[in-house]
């Protein structure tokens, strides 16, 4: 009993925790990644012994079978296949025909061959490429086909891989490489409008007979790996925006740089801003959203891409390697070190009552607040104070245009509310040194920084600064 308690203690101390099912795994990140694939399946399906599958366990077992024991010489096994009599392969003995017809006694390989000399099914791959002659002769019957029949390589598209184990709720983020579909988690999932296939079904499934990939014409392709950039961007601190994504290499226009993955959930299931709609254009009523990709507790680096009103990438729903996916496609050339941004859409901010904090919105919205604030500064003559809750845009604007700024703590007792409820004050006007001190003489100084679309605001700001100077001199 003590031994089992020690094992349990080791699991709790050193094991990796799966945020999908709650299991603890001994081993590092590789062990956790292999376990997660049992929930999600593989990014592309594999053909194993003539049958295709998304399942990671079956593929792993097949790969293990394909490996001969280390003590077995593969070249010797191939020579045994080409030599006769066949029974010597199992029991051992001499061969009278083939590469081993040298009258030597060879040891048999019962772990590789059956008793009748046939190679075991697990090692059938060893025969690939061997010139095995027909022991009954090579003459064709009179009515034989003159052209050999081409080997059929067509295989059926596998059924979707469904997850069967999950936690009701998870506070642990788990990285995945392909979407997670748990059909029994949402038993009342309504059928999407215009859905022509059976239901319930993985909403990203591409059935047999339909084009499996928009990047090539093959079936069972590897485009999800070969035609998507392998370079992984870096997650960085983006200040007021939280975390963001920075490119580590350059990308060209039209390049696919990643796939947004998460849990497949019904439309409208979550409204916390972590969902993205997946659109299919093969429905009977045209292009429609069929599900949401929810990436709050499962996903990859794509979930950290921030919004921008002038994005350089876009979300694109398309079929790649047998599944409908949300891909990130480059719209503007990206250099190494650039921030990667995408447009969340206007509805995102309307429904969530959030404010866009991107640089473009800050550039467009800061001048109305600054102009009003400069007028207050002129009227009070001593302090630059706004006696109301200050927006993040105004803080960004002041940090760009004025120094030194001071944030005075409010009466709130909660420290985490001080920034949102604080009063922004600057030193008296006599020591108030704006970065835009030369704006009255040269308005283009600031216009060149923020663009010429805001000339009225610049003119108003210039007039306010001139009035402030006159008031200071007096």
CATH architecture descriptor text of the domain at 174-352: Beta Complex
Which range best describes the helical content: under 10%, 10-25%, 25-40%, 40-55%, 55-70% or over 70%?
A: 25-40%
Q: In DSSP terms, counting alpha (H) and pi (I) runs of 4 or more, how many helices?
A: 12
**Average residue-wise pLDDT:** 75
The secondary-structure class comes to alpha+beta
Distance between the termini: 89 Å
Oligomer: single chain
Low-confidence segments, given as residue ranges, are 366-447, 449-458
CATH topology of the domain at 174-352: Beta-clip-like
Estimated share of beta-strand residues: 15-25%
Largest sheet, strands/sense/barrel: 4 strands, mixed
CATH homologous superfamily caption of the domain at 174-352 = SET domain
Judging from the principal axes of the Cα atoms, what is the shape?
A: elongated
Trace the largest sheet across and list its strands: 8-9-18-15
Rg over C-alpha atoms, rounded to the nearest angstrom: 33 Å
CATH class of the domain at 174-352: Mainly Beta
Written description of the protein model:
- The protein is built from twelve helices and 22 strands.
- It is an alpha+beta fold.
- Among the domains are: 174-352, Beta-clip-like; 359-473, no CATH class.
- A four-stranded mixed β-sheet has the order 8-9-18-15, with no helix packed on it. Strands 10-17-16 form a three-stranded antiparallel β-sheet, with no helix packed on it.
- The protein is elongated.
- It starts with a helix and ends with a helix.
- Residues 222-345 form the SET domain.
């Amino acid at each position: 009993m003590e031994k089992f308690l020690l094992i349990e203690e080791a699991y709790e101390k050193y094991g990796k925790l799966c945020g999908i099912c709650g299991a603890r795994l001994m081993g590092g990140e590789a062990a956790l990644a292999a376990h997660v694939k049992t929930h999600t399946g593989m990014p592309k399906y594999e053909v194993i012994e003539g049958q295709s599958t998304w399942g990671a366990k079956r593929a792993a077992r097949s790969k293990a079978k394909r490996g001969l024991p280390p003590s077995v010489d593969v070249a010797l096994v191939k020579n045994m296949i080409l030599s006769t009599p066949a029974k010597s392969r199992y029991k051992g003995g001499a061969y009278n025909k083939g590469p081993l017809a040298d009258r030597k006694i060879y040891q048999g390989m019962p772990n590789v061959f059956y008793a009748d000399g046939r190679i075991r099914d697990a090692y059938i791959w060893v025969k690939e490429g061997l010139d095995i002659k027909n022991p009954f002769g090579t003459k064709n019957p009179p009515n034989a086909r003159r052209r050999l029949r081409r080997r059929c390589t067509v295989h059926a598209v596998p059924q979707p891989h469904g997850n069967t184990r999950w936690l009701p709720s998870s506070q642990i983020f788990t990285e995945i490489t392909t979407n997670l579909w748990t059909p029994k988690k949402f038993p009342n999932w309504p059928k999407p409008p215009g859905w022509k296939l059976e239901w319930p079904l993985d909403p990203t499934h591409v059935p047999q007979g339909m084009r499996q990939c928009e990047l090539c014409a093959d079936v069972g392709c590897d485009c999800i790996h070969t035609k998507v950039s392998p370079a992984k961007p870096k997650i960085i601190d983006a200040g007021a925006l939280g975390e963001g994504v920075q490119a580590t290499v350059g990308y060209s226009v039209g390049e696919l740089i990643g796939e947004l993955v998460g849990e497949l959930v019904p439309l409208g299931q979550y409204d916390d801003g972590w969902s993205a709609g997946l659109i299919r254009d093969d429905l009977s009523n045209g292009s429609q959203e069929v599900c949401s990709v929810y990436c709050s507790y499962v996903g990859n680096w794509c979930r950290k891409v921030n919004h921008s009103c002038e994005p350089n990438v876009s979300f694109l729903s398309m079929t790649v390697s047998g599944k409908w996916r949300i891909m990130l496609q480059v719209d503007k050339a990206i250099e190494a070190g650039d921030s990667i941004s995408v447009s969340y859409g206007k509805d995102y901010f309307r429904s969530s009552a959030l404010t866009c904090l991107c640089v473009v919105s800050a550039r467009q919205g800061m001048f109305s607040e600054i102009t009003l604030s400069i007028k207050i500064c002129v009227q009070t003559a001593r302090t630059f104070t706004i006696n109301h809750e200050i927006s993040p845009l105004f803080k960004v604007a002041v940090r760009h245009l004025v120094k030194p700024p001071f944030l005075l703590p409010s009466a709130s007792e909660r420290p985490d509310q001080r920034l949102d409820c604080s009063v922004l004050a600057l030193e008296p006007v006599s020591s108030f040194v704006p970065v835009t001190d030369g704006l009255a003489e040269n308005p283009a100084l600031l216009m060149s920084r923020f663009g010429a679309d805001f000339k009225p605001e610049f003119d108003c700001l210039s007039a306010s600064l001139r009035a402030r100077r006159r008031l200071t001199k007096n």
